[in-house]
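Hi all, posting the design record for the shared folder.

TITLE: backbone redesign
STEP: 1 of 1
STRUCTURE INPUT:
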């Protein structure tokens, strides 16, 4: 008999105790709490009080782990943890029944939930652990208790939680207490020295003489010397991060006594899978969530949680779950319960197990069953999928990528990939800089800085920002149509937009007396909320100090108009050279606000700083801050703060490769000249996609297989030519316009502009792909 427990955790943005009443009504009777609850309101329920529900969760998971003696691979480091975990799962699952973290569940809460999934049929565990501050790793070590360790690398992630990098390494090494062997790259000197100092049993690899396993690059791949035997192997990747991750996997398989030919065969089959849910535009006004990497119960729960955060009619296309350890009927019942709880009304189930148990899914109103993916593709009428959100989740053997390909709206090869997990990381990074109680207004104007307003706004609403800001009323109207209920400030209202503003409960900015008079006349006796913009030195929009008398008189005579906030803009919050002027502006703002609030006898919200200001002027936070381009991982300051992650990647593909003779010309106007024999690639992006003509003739570069390729000739409307001489590339290869390896700041600087322009210039004809990892 299963007993369900709810662990109520009081977090910084969400209090689990608020859900006890609803869960009690759903039948939960066992609660672990860390705050007072009126127990008399819950008859027949048991409440276990602790100072920390997380502590109890971790203790229970540690006890569960202690009941199993299977080998456990524990992985930590700054980067690559999830990739290595998933690759090891792929490499070792033909021989072992494996349990692992779903997604990147590697936190103080994610780890115990992952370890709880260990069942008697499992033969191997692979768990990753991530930390952000001191005294966290020992807690995770007690839960996972790894027998084999992998230390991937050390970098700048979460540097703010540690005094120095040596202290961070020391903290991470606590994870490997008691391991039989620790695998790491000895070329990372700081890691190697710390491992040796702590006398941890090791199997290090690398080029340096101090490595136990010598690995050296050769023309055909790599030469490896292990146990005095030299062999050669290759990896199907060219970027440094993937190569290092793959070699970690090779070494651990050598340690587990796999023959190198077997290792090579399996390494060859590795794919650079994203392991993330990808939200894509689909046929018939649908959207599809591509989660086709693998399928297990924990991963399905993550996918359904993500699905629940989006407002649309939902369809789930699901394959059999393999190696669950449950009987077929029990597995089907578990899946059915998960779908019903998330109010999934339409299921397309594929696989012999699900089809044989279809009676169990009777609670789902619309359901169809197919034996195989091919049967589904041949028999299903895709016209029935209209204006819906479709989750496609399947084990790899079912080849659900064929379904995604059938569903995807066909566009050209240029896409902007928005990493929702990185957006959340950046949101939390900026929140960590705020004082208690300071609200966050997220700016989603200009198509959310080119990223896609609806999807970004949905995410921000799910993560409970306090306000959204848009430039024009029609942007706010579109968000209301997509079920965005957050307060929305409209920065540039027009008289033509007043009706939509009132109808959709939007809040206009009043920046001059003319707009105020017009809005008062339009309202009549209706109520409305407004924001007052004060001019303090930007000299763009805003009410002057001389406007205050009429502003105050008008607002006093129209009590149905509520002033939600009074704000201004700093002209130079991004640069130290302007700091004195920023303080002058702040003082002007304070005087403006004081007089307005005193005479109206109200205390509207105060806000003046943007992303740069959050980083550079903590004393200017007041009641609210406005988070814009920083949300997307762009540091708008000149100091280069660490901790942000670029959330947007613009990429395209190579359409054709040509050999050009010396003296020949390339492109319109014959602007590109081959000064020697060269190789060019035509890539599928041009100025109609927002790729500026200013990048022409070598000013801009793109990234192909880790190497920079300069633009040659003029940027065309739909395509651009680049010089790939000396670069190993093929037609169809990916081309990074900006993203990891080619920062948007660097791209903007090459044509003397700013990241804002590069982001917002990306045409709406460029497909946006949203990826997520259990956010």
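Okay, here is what came back for every position:
SEQUENCE:
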């Amino acid at each position: 008999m299963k007993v369900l427990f709810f662990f109520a955790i009081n977090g910084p943005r969400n209090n689990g105790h608020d859900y006890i009443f609803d869960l009690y009504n759903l039948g939960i009777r066992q609660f672990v709490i860390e705050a007072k609850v009126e127990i008399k309101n819950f008859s027949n329920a048991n409440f276990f009080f602790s100072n920390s529900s997380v502590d109890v969760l971790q203790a229970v998971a540690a006890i569960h782990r202690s009941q199993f003696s299977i080998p456990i691979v524990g992985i930590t480091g700054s980067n690559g943890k999830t990739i290595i975990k998933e690759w090891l799962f792929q490499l070792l699952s033909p021989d072992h029944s494996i349990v692992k973290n779903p997604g990147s569940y590697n936190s103080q809460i994610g780890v115990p939930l992952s370890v709880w999934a260990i069942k008697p049929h499992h033969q191997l565990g692979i768990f990753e652990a991530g930390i952000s501050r001191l005294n966290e790793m020992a807690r995770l070590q007690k839960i996972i208790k790894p027998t084999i360790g992998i230390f991937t690398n050390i970098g700048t992630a979460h540097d703010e939680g540690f005094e120095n990098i040596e202290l961070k390494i020391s903290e991470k090494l606590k994870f490997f207490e008691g391991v039989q062997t620790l695998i790491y790259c000895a070329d990372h000197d700081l890691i190697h020295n710390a491992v040796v100092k702590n006398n941890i049993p090791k199997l290090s690899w690398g080029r340096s003489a101090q490595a136990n396993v010598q690995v050296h690059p050769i023309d055909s791949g790599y030469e490896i010397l292990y146990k005095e035997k030299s062999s050669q192997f290759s990896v199907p990747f060219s970027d440094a991060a993937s190569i290092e991750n793959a070699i970690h996997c090779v070494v651990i398989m050598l340690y587990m006594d796999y023959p190198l030919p077997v290792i090579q065969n399996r390494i060859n089959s590795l794919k650079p899978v994203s392991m993330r849910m990808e939200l894509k535009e689909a046929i018939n006004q649908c959207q599809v969530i591509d989660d086709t990497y693998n399928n297990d119960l924990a991963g399905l729960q993550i996918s359904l949680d993500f699905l629940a955060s989006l407002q649309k009619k939902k369809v789930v296309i699901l394959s059999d779950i393999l190696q669950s350890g449950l009987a077929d009927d029990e597995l089907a019942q578990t899946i059915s319960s998960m779908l019903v709880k998330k109010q999934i009304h339409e299921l397309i189930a594929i696989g012999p197990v699900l089809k044989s148990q279809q009676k169990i899914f009777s609670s789902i109103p619309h359901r169809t069953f197919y034996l195989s993916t091919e049967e589904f593709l041949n028999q299903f009428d895709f016209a029935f999928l209209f204006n819906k959100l479709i989750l496609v989740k399947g084990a790899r053997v079912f080849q659900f990528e064929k379904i995604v390909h059938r569903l995807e709206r066909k566009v050209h090869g240029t896409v902007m990939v928005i990493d929702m997990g990185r957006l959340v990381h950046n949101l939390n990074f900026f929140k960590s800089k705020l004082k208690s109680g300071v609200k966050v207004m997220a700016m989603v104007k200009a198509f959310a800085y080119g990223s896609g307003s609806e999807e970004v706004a949905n995410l921000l609403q799910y993560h409970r920002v306090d306000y959204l800001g848009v430039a024009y009323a029609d942007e706010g109207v579109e968000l209301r149509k997509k079920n965005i209920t957050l307060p929305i400030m409209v920065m540039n209202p027009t008289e033509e937009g007043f009706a939509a503003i009132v109808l959709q409960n939007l809040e206009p900015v009043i920046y001059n007396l003319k707009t105020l008079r017009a809005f008062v006349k339009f309202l009549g006796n209706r109520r409305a909320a407004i924001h007052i913009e004060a001019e303090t030195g930007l000299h763009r929009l805003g009410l002057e100090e001389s406007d205050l008398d009429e502003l105050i008189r008008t607002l006093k005579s129209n009590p149905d108009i509520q002033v939600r906030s009074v704000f201004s803009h700093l002209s130079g919050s991004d640069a130290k050279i302007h700091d004195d002027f920023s303080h002058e502006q702040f003082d002007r703002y304070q005087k403006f606000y004081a007089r307005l609030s005193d005479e109206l006898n109200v205390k509207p919200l105060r806000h003046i700083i943007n992303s740069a200001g959050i980083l550079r002027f903590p004393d200017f936070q007041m009641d609210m801050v406005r988070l814009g381009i920083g949300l997307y991982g762009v540091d708008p300051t000149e100091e280069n703060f660490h901790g942000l992650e670029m959330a947007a990647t613009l990429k395209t593909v190579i359409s054709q490769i040509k050999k050009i003779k010396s003296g020949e010309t390339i492109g319109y106007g014959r602007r590109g000249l081959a000064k020697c024999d060269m190789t060019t690639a035509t890539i599928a992006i041009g100025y109609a996609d927002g790729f500026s003509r200013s990048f022409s003739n070598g000013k801009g570069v793109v990234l192909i297989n880790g190497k920079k390729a300069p633009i040659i000739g003029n940027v065309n409307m739909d395509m651009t030519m680049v010089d790939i001489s000396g670069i190993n590339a093929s037609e169809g290869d990916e081309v990074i316009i900006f993203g990891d390896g080619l920062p948007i700041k660097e791209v903007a600087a090459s044509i003397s502009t700013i990241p804002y322009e590069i982001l917002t210039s990306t045409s709406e004809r460029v497909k946006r792909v949203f990826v997520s990892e259990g956010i």
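COMMENT: The radius of gyration is 29 Å.
Let me know if anyone wants the other runs.
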